[in-house]
Specification:
3 helices; DNA-directed RNA polymerase; two-stranded antiparallel ribbon; Pol_omega/Rpo6/RPB6; elongated; two-stranded antiparallel sheet; alpha+beta
Length: 116
């Protein structure tokens, strides 16, 4: 899923809690689902950022016995772009409100996958 295309707000806003427990029936379970999804999004974005930055090899210039590492301008622009993206928790919340967030309950065998 492309997290950059999700139209999540860049700041936290007050929301109606009754919207959050519609899919699970329990607000605490919804918070756990949102937390786990935010961790997934965060690790995926972090891995994508590391992959893009590693494409640009650091230039090592040796001068007078001291190695200096210069960052590419492209690396700085990529880092700024990822800093401007919405926070993973806000992206997960938007997925929940849009109805695209799916989760599994391992203790309930009768319903394998439920969609919020």
């Amino acid at each position: 899923m492309d997290y950059k295309k999700i139209k999540a707000s860049h700041e936290a806003i007050t929301r109606d809690l009754s919207e959050f427990d519609k899919g699970t029936g329990n607000i605490y379970e919804t918070v756990v689902v949102l937390g786990k999804r935010a961790n997934q999004i965060s690790s995926a974005l972090r891995q994508e950022l590391v992959n893009k930055i590693s494409e640009f090899s650091a230039q090592i210039v040796s001068g007078e016995g001291i190695d200096e590492i210069y960052e590419n301008r492209e690396q700085i622009e990529i880092a700024r772009y990822y800093e401007q993206l919405s926070k993973p928790s806000l992206i997960a919340t938007q997925e929940l409100l849009d109805g695209t967030l799916c989760f599994k309950r391992p203790e309930k065998e009768d319903s394998l996958e439920q969609s919020l």
